[in-house]
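Lecture 7 notes. Example A: sequence first, then its structure tokens.
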Amino acid sequence: MVVVFCGRALPLDKELMLKGSELEKHEHLKGVLIDFLESRIATVVEQFSPEAADSLRDYSPEALAQVEEASPAIEEEAQFKPRLISDSEFEEFVQYDLPLLDNGDYFKTFFE
């Protein structure tokens, strides 16, 4: 059993997730996500350097306001809204794809 978070498949304790109490499930899932986030945060922190900072975009409100004034393309980007999946797409996923995620060969086609 896995949870997909930030495009990564994180392993879960199947027995605990199926038979544990709500609190045990919550704590287990939280622990798995915390472990993942701690490793990602460490990776990001290691990458920071004065040289790297020069290429980072400034996301402060003031800097964004200046960029929006200078570039109408930013306004178009800000108005972009992601396409939500339809009910039929969701049902198709639940009916066909979701049960196959425990199939190792099927899983590997998407996550390796």
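Example B, a different protein, same format:
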Amino acid sequence: MAQLDWSQCAAVESVPGKVSGAWVLRDTRMPVSVIFENLEYGATIEELIENYNVTREEVQAVLEFAAQSAAPPLPLPALSPADARTL
């Protein structure tokens, strides 16, 4: 899994001494990495919900954050020479 700045995701937390400080779903002991590992091995979101007692919203928040973080930045619009002079 790519290294993301999970501190920017409101759905997760890292607490020293709780699951060795791993990023977990907020107010749980469910590591974020377990979500990705299970999906990688073919589990469905429904199976995650059932097997780990998490909500669809928690899983979706993690997946959406990862997707947004992994997306390439949008290109900046080209400046005309006149616009560039005013910078």
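Note on Example B: Residues 6-71 form a domain with the Arc Repressor Mutant, subunit A fold (CATH 1.10.10.10). The longest helix spans residues 56-70.
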